[in-house]
Amino acid sequence: MVRKSFLSYNKTIWGPLELVEKLYPEAEEIGASVRDLPGLKTPLGRARAWLRLALMQKKMADYLRCLIIQRDLLSEFYEYHALMMEEEGAVIVGLLVGLNVIDANLCVKGEDLDSQVGVIDFSMYLKNEEDIGNKERNVQIAAILDQKNYVEELNRQLNSTVSSLHSRVDSLEKSNTKLIEELAIAKNNIIKLQEENHQLRSENKLILMKTQQHLEVTKVDVETELQTYKHSRQGLDEMYNEARRQLRDESQLRQDVENELAVQVSMKHEIELAMKLLEKDIHEKQDTLIGLRQQLEEVKAINIEMYQKLQGSEDGLKEKNEIIARLEEKTSKITAAMKQLEQSDNDLLTQTRTIAMSLVKCASSDTQDQYKLVKDISF
């Protein structure tokens, strides 16, 4: 009869548990947590931590069911006669469903999961017929067990503190090495800075000597320039006083020219106003001439009408002749008056035009002369 085993003899339990992450995505969190745990060095320790986390999640049966369903993948890790490859594997997974009822709170950090679990001797916990009445011995055993549990707990805490101290020592050693390297770099930088400081001091001395020589030369130049400036300042003061006097005279002359220009401008405005008045008078006379011409035409029309009536009526010939004579006298007087008015208007127009032209020419010549004079003064 072939003996069935849970695993193959040359495989570890961590291999199929890693396969669960690919088949069941929710198991990726457990795998990542197990890999991040410090102190786990063997696959057996990782498998124990994985099983404890699965129990606390209450998903042990679900994870193993994924493995049982994918038996073709399990052939890489198990022999053909292994327990997980047989039908009993499904039965075991079904039995594991009962573990979901238990609220497990197992310790994972600080536990030595890589080493082999020792055999626990439960003989002292079993009751014999001889020890039924021995209460004192039971009390001693209970005290010893309490002490044992206290010592184990204290040992566990000490192991955790030692591991933390080891980690702190490692970190301190790393920081110490970094500080030593930084100190060496700082010493090298200090040496370089000292060399640069010495070089800068020597350059500073050279620059100081050159600047002193340059200052002496510039001092001599400044003294000579100061003497020349004092000599030239007297001549400049005389020139300034002369220019100031000329400026005062020219400004006075310019003020006089501006006053004359203002007078000429006012005269020009008066001439323009007189021209406007003359034009208005001429227009009025022209209107009167037009009225007289209209009256003349009316008289001519009356004359023609009377003449026609004269021919038609012989009886009133004398009276009409008299009327005609009087009308002719009136017409002659009106024509003479019109001619006289036209002659006077023409003479007045010519006179006003000549006066205006002469005034305009005078004003333009005066303004040009004044403009030239002002321009010369400004220059």
Automatic annotation (TrEMBL):
TM regions (residue ranges): none
Organism name: Moschus moschiferus (Siberian musk deer)
Domain of life: Eukaryota
Coiled-coil segments on the chain, per record: 169-203, 240-347
Stored PANTHER family: RUN AND FYVE DOMAIN-CONTAINING PROTEIN 2, RUN AND FYVE DOMAIN-CONTAINING PROTEIN 2-LIKE PROTEIN
Keyword flag Coiled coil: yes
GO CC, alphabetical: cytoplasm
Domain (RUN): residue spans on this chain: 1-111
Gene this chain is encoded by: RUFY2
Keywords assigned by UniProt, alphabetized: Coiled coil
Protein name: RUN and FYVE domain containing 2
Pfam families associated with the record: RUN (PF02759)
PROSITE patterns named in the record: RUN (PS50826)
